[in-house]
């Protein structure tokens, strides 16, 4: 829907008709600009549904390791080999950074955002630390937060907010950051197979991410 944002003004005219009983299903990934247009033109008349990739319930219990490594994108999971799946995920990452991000009106160099994304993969499952990432990438904390907002807003990363036992207590807690699709995490960490995953330092964090991605 990023390519047809003006469609919502048309849908609003139809939805405001008192005798109109139809419904519309609009597919597309998310963006802050798109959400704003929907909220302004169809407030109270629109619902968002987040659709993830393949789950274990959908593929059955016979291929859990394959699902864990490749995760939920259909072309990644259904690839004939781990090598082809790994290649597809890397192509997806490159295409997303070089084509999709600019189409959203976001002016961030693809290589810069990929470096940030890869860095997040190595910090995956840890408490978000903008200052540490900023020092590693030679940038500012505000820029790190902007990059994080971009990847979270396009459903590629998931911030796990901290739990507060006492809302009145004045304290600042930071979230943890996870990948929504562990298959992309493995691609950025150059993990191609289940055997490679078992020997990787992020093995435990990847398992934790797999559980979160079911939520």
Layout: helices, strands, pairs:
Blueprint: H1 7-15, H2 32-41, H3 56-59, H4 64-70, H5 74-77, H6 82-103, H7 110-122, H8 130-137, H9 141-153, E1 157-160, E2 176-179, H10 182-188, H11 194-198, H12 203-212
Antiparallel strand pairs: 1-2
Protein architecture, described:
The protein is mainly α and 215 residues long. The chain has two domains: 7-41, no CATH class; 82-212, Orthogonal Bundle (Arc Repressor Mutant, subunit A). It is 52% helix and 4% strand. The chain is built from twelve helices and two strands, in the order αααααααααββααα. It has helices at 7-15, 32-41, 56-59, 64-70, 74-77, 82-103, 110-122, 130-137, 141-153, 182-188, 194-198, 203-212, and strands at residues 157-160, 176-179. Strands 1-2 form a two-stranded antiparallel sheet. Helix 4 packs across helix 10 and helix 8 crosses helix 9. The mean pLDDT is 83.
> Which class of the largest domain in CATH terms?
Mainly Alpha
Instruction: Count structural domains.
Output: 2
Envelope shape: globular
What is the overall number of helices?
A: 12
Tell how many strands the DSSP assignment holds. Answer: 2
Order of helices and strands: HHHHHHHHHEEHHH
**What is the percent of helical residues?**
40-55%
- Fill in the CATH topology of the largest domain: Arc Repressor Mutant, subunit A
Give the overall pLDDT as a whole number: 83
N- to C-terminal distance: 25 Å
- How much of the sequence lies in strands comes to under 5%
* Main pleated-sheet profile: 2 strands, antiparallel
Helix/strand/pairing category? mainly alpha
Give the CATH architecture of the largest domain: Orthogonal Bundle
């Amino acid at each position: 829907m990023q390519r047809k944002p003006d469609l919502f003004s048309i849908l609003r005219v139809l939805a405001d008709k008192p005798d109109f009983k139809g419904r519309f299903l609009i597919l597309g990934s998310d963006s802050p600009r798109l959400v704003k247009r929907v909220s302004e033109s169809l407030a109270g008349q629109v619902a968002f549904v987040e659709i993830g990739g393949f789950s274990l319930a959908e593929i059955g219990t016979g291929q859990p390791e394959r699902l864990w490594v490749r995760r939920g994108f259909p072309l990644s999971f259904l690839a004939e080999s781990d090598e082809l799946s790994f290649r597809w995920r890397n192509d997806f990452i490159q295409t997303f950074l070089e084509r999709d991000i600019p189409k959203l009106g976001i002016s961030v160099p693809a290589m810069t955002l990929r470096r940030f994304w890869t860095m997040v993969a190595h910090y995956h499952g840890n408490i978000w630390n903008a200052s540490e990432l900023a020092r590693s990438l030679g940038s500012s904390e505000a820029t790190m937060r902007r990059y994080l907002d971009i990847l979270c807003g396009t459903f590629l990363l998931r911030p796990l907010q901290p739990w507060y036992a006492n809302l009145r207590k004045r304290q600042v807690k930071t979230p943890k950051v996870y990948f929504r699709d562990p298959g992309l995490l493995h691609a950025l960490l150059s993990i191609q197979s289940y055997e490679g995953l078992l020997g990787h330092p992020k093995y435990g964090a990847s398992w934790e991410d797999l559980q979160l991605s079911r939520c």
